[in-house]
Amino acid sequence: MQSITVTAPGRINLIGEHTDYNNGFVLPAAIQMAATATITKRADDEIHLTAIDLADSLILDSIANLRINEKQWANYIIGVIVQFVKKRKFPTGFNISISSNVPIGAGLSSSAAIECAIAFGLNELFEFGIDTMELAFIAQKAEHDFAGVHCGIMDQFASLFGKKNKVVLLDCQNMEYRYFPLDLGTYQIVLLDTGVKHALASSEYNVRRAECEKGIQIIQQKYPEVASLRDATIDMLNECVDPSSLVYNRCKYVIEEIERTQAAASDLVMNNLIAFGQKMFATHTGLSKLYEVSCPELDILISEVESNENVIGARMMGGGFGGCTINIVKATAVNEFIEQLSTAYQTQTGKQLTPYLVSIEEGAHQS
Ligand code: GLA
Fold it and tell me: pTM score, two decimals?
């Protein structure tokens, strides 16, 4: 094979937010918005990168000496190549051209889509035989080292493992996963994009991780067997951590969310959408009040839908500080819902709302 074209999608997450790096559960699915990469072997050992959407390109210096580049788009690609270089030897150089229709900053994992397209594509083209779970970790490491975000594994996992019309419950403690058909009956998923991405998103993300780790350290003084917040209980937290501290609030949210996600997955299996939707609202309250990763724009969108009888569940989605809300809306009322929300959002923030109707699609694949 001389050349390959691959597609790797963005993701939604139904519930289980900020739980992945705490060894908890997540319930994501891959969506129709995706990154597409064409990778072609070269006769020499050079690496040429092209970002089709930006009409920008770059020739990398030397494969042995790859570093963070001033072109931000290139870092998601270079970060992945660096991980491959640590594990395998490239027999030739290659050209990569990439484009994506995953909106940037919307909390739909546009960066994971690019990382996973590159990881999946290089592995296939050069027949490296790296298993798909390992590719997810490679893509995650690229995000850590080249984008500076100490993300969990959810986004890269979802982009690689997604299945058409299925959500996947991933246990981030042991990476075991189970697919569920997503049957929303007369309801539909609607994403509402605030159009904002606050500058502190990635720095605050890393701060939240550190706060969770601090909580674990405190709990471990009394309960050394607690390796992560997955092992902690609210009773342990109450016993060990000052309830007026931020660390307490962060840990409380995470411990509750890990439990809520398991219960929500059961609701889905039992087809109890009402109970599922109520848990989504509870997640939003926790993310906003305890974990403090929401923002006024997201909170406005949630308070606007809370008493709307056509909406059974809604919450902010992804890392936070902007991006989208995910809403479960009566299918026959979707147009009316979008109109109402767009007007309310414009009136209260002066900003324009972008709705997305998502379909659930296959994870990374050759196109
Ligand atoms: C971002 C990260 C994920 C996850 C979510 C929050 O999308 O990349 O690993 O932590 O935020 O659930």
Answer: 0.97
